[in-house]
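Hey, sorry for the delay on this. The queue was backed up all week. Below are the sequences that define the complex (chains, strands and the ligand SMILES where applicable).
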Amino acid sequence: MPADEAADEAIAVEVEGLTKSFGGKVVVRDLSMRVRRGQIYGFLGPNGSGKTTTLRMLCGLLTPDSGRGSALGYDIRTQNEEIKRHVGYMTQRFSLYQDLSIQENLEFVARVYGLANPVREARDAIERLGLVGREHQLAGELSGGWKQRLALGACILPTPELLLLDEPTAGVDPKARREFWGEIHKLAAQGMTVLVSTHYMDEAERCHEIAYIAYGVLLAHGTIHDVIQQSHLRTYSVSGPDLYSLSEKLLGLPGVDMVAPFGNSLHVAGRDGEALDRAVADFRNRPDLHWSVSQPSLEDVFISLMGKSRDNFQ
Amino acid sequence: MIDLSRTLAMLIKEFVQLRRDRLTFSTMIFIPVVQLLLFGYAINTTPRHLPTAVLVHEENDLTRSVLAALGNTSYFSVTRIARSEAEMDHWMRSGEVLFGVEIPAGFERGVRRGDRPALLVAADASDPVAAGTALAALEGIVQTALVRDRGLPESIQSVPAFEIRQHRRYNPAAVTSLNIVPGLLGTILTMTMLIFTALSVTREIERGTMESLLSMPIRPLEIMLGKIAPYVLIGFLQAALILVLAVLLFRVPIEGSVLLLSGLSTLFIATNLSIGYTFSTIAQNQLQAVQMSFMFFLPNILLSGFMFPYAGMPGWAQVIGELLPLTHYIRIVRGIMLKGASLYDLHIDAAALAGLMLLAMTLAVRRFRTTLD
Ligand SMILES: Nc1ncnc2c1ncn2[C@@H]1O[C@H](COP(=O)(O)OP(=O)(O)O)[C@@H](O)[C@H]1O
Ligand SMILES: [Mg+2]
């Protein structure tokens, strides 16, 4: 059917009901999502929430217990070989050979992908990555930022159509992070689809779309605007003296889902607006406190989502 | 089925890693040399000053001369004079002496009359190499002594004037020294080859590089061939080194074709590498892989005919022995080096090695986990 084909063309990743458990513990539960081609899709969530597991299922490194999915139109259960040829996966932990030099690592990758001239491909990549002069340095001797750059370079060497990046900027300094994101945007502009996991909130803002996963469950997805709207979160910003003791008093109240310091003010939010208003009514009358309705930040949304999912989890 | 570029990628990578791993690299040269020298000299050196007890039933110039001749050689050292057979037996059982020489009554008269009386020699053959060499030397020593010291007549000089009646105790089927070096070649190769590949897959898992490797389009067969190939060359160099040393230092002959020996040694090397690699795909970590290698190494040493004569083993042990590559390789090496055997003579052992290699490779490719599940 042409209509479906056209739809497939526009979709890089599509999964439905993906579930994976290790030793009886469900790590990813009934996960469904869709990534359009050419997008930068952020995959957010706290540590241990199943991000790595999901990415591994997408590139054929783990077999889902149930559910189905496709990457670039290839079935993630049965078409492993095609997926490996067209999907680049950058692991969370540096996993190139520490005892090989930069040049040797890149040559290895080029040969595995059957590129015509591995030595030249590696040299070109070194130039693109700005690693000229370091090509004979062992990968194990590089700093975190350079390692991450090398890993990305190795990933994109065989020009994959889909890039899966697992927390690529963890432990990297802000300047290197900014440059890294610049590179990702450049790749996306060239038509590459990028699915990137992170637990930095500010990096979410650099993505076209995001998904938030906690305890193996996908809690929200869409553009940042969508995610904030969907949360139906009512948020107040409070300023005044001794906000710390105020936050302690507010936290246990019914209707208050989230209290978080935000610079010189406190963000107080709840999914049930009326319940929240009832809870804070007494405090709003205090003359030393200044209350104002505020737009919830992405972080507010995530913190409250996490609180909710923890409630469900227990 | 096999992509050459991908196999080559793996091969080059392994070579570079190998070159960079100084410890492993030097072990590869070091292990064979040290082991050969150690075992070769320890086992193979002509034994000297073996403690010997004598039991003399008559005292005269001739018997004294025989005893003196024994003592003058460097093989025997007369440490005990026994007064009865029971006493001599006791010393032999306790290991205080390795030889018991008994000169019977009427020995001198027998020699002079040309009756060829018997000189009784009991040897503790539980150390067969020591016993064998000394026994072989004994006859000449005594004969020379008699001729030189006693001026025996011409007629007696041409044939020994007496008979040496040997009695090997505890281990009747003695291994000769020439058998040791060929066996050692196989043992050293087995040990080093097993360890090299036994670590190769588990190392990738433990260093975390397996995750990257598995996400790339390379197949288990290509990974295996790429990982085994560099070590075939290393193993070949090792074998050459051992053989050169064996020929130079221990005067081991190579009666048959050197080319055939090289070819079949390469097959044996590849077989052990495949088995080591199979362990590597089964083991959960490097420690387990090493343990498996040693578990496999032990029967190779004990049941292959290296340590104990194959023919003397019970039926079940021989069946196990047939399943071990070292058994076949020892036959091959002894055949080629000592007996000048041809491929035709050895085709069953060669086929057995090839069969074991293919079995191990098939198992390894099937066992190789292409996911992290
Ligand atoms: N191979 C595995 N065996 C057992 N448990 C695992 C395995 N991989 C991940 N887990 C568990 O699954 C959970 C999710 O892990 P992960 O997907 O790595 O989360 P994230 O990448 O979001 O931090 C964690 O609790 C982790 O301990
Ligand atoms: Mg992770």
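Residues A 22, 27, 45, 47-53 surround adenosine-5'-diphosphate (ligand 1) (CB under 6 Å).

I'll add it to the shared folder too.

S.
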